[in-house]
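We were asked to recover a plausible sequence for a given structure. The inputs and outputs are reproduced exactly as logged, with field labels preserved.

PROBLEM: sequence recovery
POSITIONS: 127
GIVEN STRUCTURE:
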């Protein structure tokens, strides 16, 4: 169970991290503005979910992708740096939202069912 939650929250943080629909389509960042590999630290503040681990996600053309294909993720980054993502693995899913700057970011996440929530912090690894 912990490993499953770890995988779900790793991407939702990104992370990557409002739902994807909350970012207006005309506010999507130009390709490359936040592109690269991002290292994300996930912390659980409420609930019995994994915490205190680091994962890697990729941003390409204002879209967020998991670095591990074992779960699905869809997300986007607006030109302002606002980021949102929805992540799923099996019948479990989570959302994350926050803000990126050129080299860092932070925000919050929660499971769709609301049983766990927390915060995330990201650092850009590649440009």
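RECOVERED SEQUENCE:
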């Amino acid at each position: 169970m912990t490993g499953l939650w770890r995988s779900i929250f790793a991407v939702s943080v990104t992370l990557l991290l409002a739902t994807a629909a909350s970012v207006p389509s005309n506010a999507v960042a130009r390709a490359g503005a936040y592109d690269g590999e991002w290292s994300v630290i996930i912390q659980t503040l409420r609930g019995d979910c994994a915490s205190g681990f680091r994962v890697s996600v990729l941003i390409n053309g204002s879209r967020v992708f998991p670095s591990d294909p074992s779960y699905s993720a869809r997300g986007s980054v607006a030109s302002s740096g606002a980021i949102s993502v929805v992540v799923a693995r099996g019948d479990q899913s989570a959302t994350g939202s926050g803000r990126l700057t050129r080299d860092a970011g932070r925000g919050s996440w929660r499971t769709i069912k609301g049983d766990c929530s927390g915060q995330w912090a990201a650092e850009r690894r590649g440009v």
